[in-house]
Amino acid sequence: MTTTGRTMTTPTTSGTTDGARRRFARVSVRTRITVVIALLTAVAMTGAGLLVYALESARIERQVNAQISQEIAEFRALRIDPNTGEEFDDVGRVLNVFLTRNVPDDDEMLVGYVRGETPERTVNRYGQEVLDEPAYQDALDELDGVGGTRVIESPTFGETWVTLVPVTNTQGEGSLVIVNFLRDEHEELDRTLQTYTLIALLSLGLITTIAGFQSGRLLAPLRTLESTAREITTTDLSRRIPERGNDDITALTRTINSMLERLDSGFAAQRQFLDDAGHELKTPLTVLRGHLELLDGEDPAELAQTRELLLDEVDRMSRLVQDLILLAKSRRPDFLVLGEVHLADLTQSVLAKATALGDREWQLDGVARGRAVLDEQRVTQALLQLADNAVKHTDPGSAVAVGSAREDGLVRLWVRDSGEGIPAEDREAVLERFGRSHVRAGDDGFGLGLSIVRAIADAHGGDVRITDAEPRGAHVAIVLPDREIDR
Q1: Which residues contact residue 260 at a Cβ distance below 8 angstroms, ignoring those fewer than 6 apart?
Q2: Which residues pair with 87 in a beta bridge?
């Protein structure tokens, strides 16, 4: 027979640990830094105190051992009786002379024992109390006949070292007992550690206060960053974080500001794109709607005429949208595909392609030698746009020239025409979106051509320069940094 039952699960500490971690994560960074510094300081000071205690205890033990060794050496060296001038032959006499001639320290007492006689000792503040101490008597019994040192504890005189030195000669047996009291040394060490503990606690409080103040000061830019980030919206990216100092947080602030600059630029480009598209598409859409509303579906001739007109408007809108998309993409990192380009081949290729734009007297002003790093397709697009503008503003048979040159660390590629030219006061305006100077009959452009050329030049780190051509006309040059590879 089988039985079934419920599977019981035992509670674990994982839930408690996760809860503690979440509570700790809610604590401010300033508090966490201060607590960590306080803990590390407390651990360091505690470790230093324990180390000092261990070293001082070892020093006290070495000092007592040295004192015991010195007394034993002096006792061993005592061989001649100062009264008779001969070697000692009486144990009692040896001990008596040694005890009477020796002046022990305050924390030391010497006791001489001769079997069957009352012990003789040096003067000490504890005196007879030591001799009557049971632990002392036990130590003597343990060391009797073998010698050595034993450590005893007494509520009266604290830690005490008892060292027994056996003495034997022709007249009997006895022993010298060296008693060392360590109570004063330990009390002095305890007072020192109490003073150290007080100073350590005061220092810990001071360090914790300074750590809290300094961490708050160092994290102030992060709080400013937080408040600034809260104020930034999709419609206002103009706020920037103040940059102070030259530390890691300042570097982070500079990086955040750079990111905000790129976001602001990107959103501005998007807004510009939407504004331009809405503005420029409104007219063709109105035209389309007007013709569709007035269209007579029963008149084949009107249907064909309206169809042709509407397709033409759709083509114009398609060109407009493509140009606006190109301008919007010009700020993206992948807008350019850089590579090594032979400038002479590029110039001649542009000239060959431009000849199909119109019946003009196409000329080559000159070519630059060597190779440069640029996006060949984008630069070709820009030069052909300049050539197309030149065709629109010149008459058939007029001279239009293409050229390139290297000078002063720059690469110049230009198109020169012999038309009316561009007045100086209009040269900046024509480089903006939908900016135009004078419009010739038959020009159905949107005023985006030169803004596209400028966007391509800007993406390369260059610019567009418009001057007068000789003897007349416009000279429009794309000036780029000369990232030469091999001339």
Answers
A1: 232, 237, 239, 240
A2: 80
Cα separation, 57 vs 248, in Å, equals 46
Q: Which H, E and C letters describe 145-171, residue by residue?
A: CCCEEEEEEECCCEEEEEEEEEEEECC
Please list the alpha-helical segments (H only) found in 336-448.
343-354, 376-392
378 contacts: CB under 8 Å, gap ≥ 6: 335, 336, 456, 459, 460
Mean pLDDT by 10-residue block, N- to C-terminus, for the chain (487 residues)? 45 58 71 91 94 92 91 86 78 84 83 74 72 87 87 86 84 84 89 93 93 85 76 69 74 82 74 65 70 72 78 74 72 82 92 90 91 91 89 89 90 91 82 63 61 88 90 90 66
**Tell me, what DSSP letter sits at residue 182?**
-
> What angle do the packed helices 220-231 and 183-218 form, to 10 degrees?
30
> Could you tell me whether strands 399-407 and 361-366 are parallel, antiparallel, or unpaired per DSSP bridges?
parallel
Q: Helix (H, G, I), strand (E, B), or coil: what is residue 142?
A: helix
Q: If you search the block for the tokens 């105190």, which residue do you land on?
A: 49
Of 141, 183, 179, the residue nearest 163 (C-alpha): 179
Q: What is the pTM of this model?
A: 0.49
Under 8 Å CB-to-CB from 48, ≥6 apart: which residues? none
Residue 104 tokens read as 């022990």
Of 145, 191, 140, nearest to 162 by C-alpha is 140
Distance of CA 75 to the CA centre of its chain: 70
Hey, which residues does 91 pair with through a beta bridge? none
Long-range pairs of 213-222 with CB within 8 A, sequence gap ≥ 24: 215/29, 215/30, 215/33, 215/34, 215/37, 216/30, 218/247, 218/249, 219/29, 219/30, 219/33, 219/249, 221/249, 221/250, 221/252, 221/253, 222/29, 222/249
| Bridge pairing between strands 158-169 and 474-481 | unpaired
3-state secondary structure (DSSP) of residue 75: helix
